[in-house]
């Protein structure tokens, strides 16, 4: 994703950094990830972990062309109980935000990513739809995310999904040494 | 705030809406508000509620001109134990966000508001600094918020505080009927 967004210079994530900061809370209360897992044979879903409040969503998709994943081995995510392996094809990471104008929570989508060989098959729409459906289910007021203004394909895709791109708002970011300067501010 | 931002048409908050969706979690884990309370006489701070992990920050400010608050009665927030009343002069509402590029949480500031008669006295800076200091204390990587591109005074203020305004990113928003359409999407 950092490569695609031409932002590798600000990407400093490591596996241990991600492990220690994610997956510490029940789904939807804080940072939440929907993983897109794909297999050539049907899934036998285990019951959802007790108290999670969320059962995996199962979908059968028929593709016109056979799908070849050159990195399947690296992205293997265990077995589905049948003979074909399960591969992670994408993810969406989101968390609650809040609008005082609506007096309601919403979801903010930090990342929506589908691996290259799985693109243009409706999987991105599937991931974002799952977040939107969950927001409606919880009575939330908005789903928001950001897009780079030169990413016209993404903008078209988001608008087709019913989103509005807000032209007037700009993101302000305090980070690095400028943030560190506030250590003893209060 | 909605009046100032020329956004009253999208403001549908009510007191009961706010009450039922805020103040349900320990500070910093979810939606958090720092209230700016002002009194002419010193505060006698009670000990912080056990387990909250946050003690009120106390500051003495000397102003050149006497401060007249025509709405003091409406914004009264109890007594500070002395003879002068305590008034709410502003607030900042923020909550955790997450950067996969940093593999770290941050804070997103949804609202920063100081009531009109208290402006241009450093209170806005005080509220935002308190959020930034808390972010540093927790080892977080960023503090972010948004600004309207025509609000040049705010932009100057934020840049003086060390923030960068990101020119390329645009907010996408799925709300109202367009969001509701996803109720049965999954």
Automatic annotation (TrEMBL), chains A, B:
Q: Where is the N-acetyltransferase domain?
A: 42-186
Q: Which residues form a coiled coil?
A: none
Does the record bear Ribosomal protein in its keywords? no
Q: What Pfam families does the annotation carry? A: Acetyltransf_1
Q: Carries keyword Transferase?
A: yes
For this UniProt record, give its keywords in alphabetical order, as a comma-separated list.
Acyltransferase, Transferase
Q: Which GO terms describe its molecular function?
A: N-acetyltransferase activity
* Record's protein name: N-acetyltransferase domain-containing protein
Q: Which organism is it from?
A: Linum tenue
């Amino acid at each position: 994703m950092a490569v695609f967004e031409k932002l590798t210079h600000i990407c400093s994530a490591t596996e241990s950094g991600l492990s220690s900061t994610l997956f510490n809370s029940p789904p939807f209360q804080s940072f939440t990830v929907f993983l897109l897992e794909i297999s050539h044979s049907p899934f036998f879903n285990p019951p959802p972990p007790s108290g999670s409040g969320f059962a995996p969503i199962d979908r059968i998709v028929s593709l016109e062309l056979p799908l070849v994943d050159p990195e399947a081995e690296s992205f293997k995510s265990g077995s589905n109980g049948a003979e074909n392996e399960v591969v992670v094809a994408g993810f969406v990471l989101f968390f609650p935000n809040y609008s005082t104008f609506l007096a309601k929570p919403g979801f903010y989508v930090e990342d929506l990513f589908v691996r290259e060989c799985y693109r243009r098959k409706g999987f991105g729409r599937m991931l974002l739809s799952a977040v939107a459906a969950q927001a409606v289910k919880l009575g939330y007021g908005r789903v928001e995310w950001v897009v780079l203004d030169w990413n016209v394909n993404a903008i078209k895709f988001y608008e087709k999904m019913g989103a509005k791109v807000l032209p007037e708002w700009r993101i302000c970011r305090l980070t690095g040494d400028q943030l560190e300067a506030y250590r003893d501010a209060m």
